[in-house]
Write a structure and sequence with these properties.
mainly alpha
Length: about 350
């Protein structure tokens, strides 16, 4: 993930466009069909991951509200879709506020575990036994855990609005990955130390269960924080997916209607509405685990394309070109850069 974050940091500053991977692959291989295919994969990942997190959020909300999962999932997606359609600034500000709340909740668990006397360091320092069945289980769990480390690349979608992107975007990606890694390792160690894994596996709100075990407070308190966390992720996914579709429409990989922007909100309403419908449909028809697994596998494939694109681009143009050229030409940048 660290190597991939470094690749995205350079690609985002070379090509500050919303189409992201589609633009990178198109610039590297000068292929409209490959660009469109990779862009479509990016859209699918955004929709699938949003659906997966929607089911997780509905699981936490069901702990507080006695409603079945399907209407909860639809209500979550619809409400956040409206927020995403109201404006990019509003979405980003709300996402930032929700991020502070969810990070505070995770830190709360870590501090509570440290004060409760639960010994979770062995879960980090003790190596697993050299048993094939155990190691295969760890490998499979690693694939699912990979799901928690993605989305740093979403920063590439806002590079057009960033000040000093050559400096700020790489730092933002590196910090996002570092903070996520520290939090994830600590929370994972505390989880299996405070609650038996067999109990965690059957819970629809595992973090609330862990919070109750380490803090001695009603799990309902943390369920609210967990709901905030999932809502934040869903909002970010739908917003960024709509932006990718907009960027692909701008460079001709999707119908022009997908790139139409509302004059007042500055967001693509048709694209946002389509994303909302697709996320709701998946959340209502496919269970959580297959969605998370599919997201991880598809994201791995996407990262391979991004890394290969950077290798090919570097072999042609070792130094980044002026930002104005990349903005103007998008994935056709390498073909038309002589005009700069």
């Amino acid at each position: 993930m660290a190597f991939t974050a470094a690749s995205y940091a350079e690609l985002a500053t070379r090509y500050p466009v919303s189409a992201r991977e589609a633009a990178y692959v198109g610039a590297a291989f000068n292929s409209r069909s490959l660009s469109r295919a990779v862009g479509s994969l990016r859209l699918a990942i955004g929709i699938i991951s949003a659906a997966a997190v929607t089911l997780g959020g509905a699981g936490y909300i069901s702990q507080l509200v006695a409603l079945p999962m399907p209407p909860l999932a639809v209500a979550i997606v619809t409400t956040l879709g409206i927020v995403a359609a109201l404006g990019n600034l509003e979405s980003v500000m709300l996402a930032g506020f929700l991020t502070l709340i969810e990070t505070g909740g995770l830190v709360w668990i870590i501090v509570s575990a440290a004060h409760s006397g639960i010994s979770f360091s062995p879960a980090i320092s003790t190596p697993p036994p050299l048993d094939a069945s155990i190691l295969s289980g760890i490998t499979f769990a690693g694939l699912v855990a990979f799901f928690a480390f993605v989305r740093f690349e979403d920063l590439a979608n806002v590079v057009e609005e960033a000040k000093s992107p050559q400096r700020n975007i790489p730092w933002a990606m590196a910090l996002a990955l570092l903070i996520t890694t520290v939090l994830y390792v600590l929370i994972a160690a505390i989880s299996v130390s405070a609650v038996p894994p067999s109990v965690l596996a059957t819970s629809t709100a595992p973090l609330s269960l862990i919070f109750g075990a380490v803090a001695g407070i009603s799990p309902t308190t943390f369920s609210v924080i967990a709901i905030v966390s999932t809502l934040n992720t869903i909002l970010a996914q739908m917003t960024m997916t709509a932006r990718v579709a907009y960027g692909m429409a701008q460079q001709g990989d999707l119908p022009a209607i997908a790139g139409r922007v509302h004059s007042r909100t500055g967001t693509p309403p048709i694209t946002t509405g389509s994303v909302v419908l697709a996320v709701a449909a998946l959340a209502l028809t496919i269970p959580l685990e297959p969605l998370a697994e599919s997201t991880s596998l598809a994201t791995l494939a996407l990262f391979v394309f991004a890394n290969l694109s950077l290798l090919r681009i570097r072999s042609r143009t070792p130094k980044p070109m002026p930002r104005s050229c990349a903005c103007r030409y998008g994935y056709r940048y390498l073909v038309s850069s002589h005009a700069c």
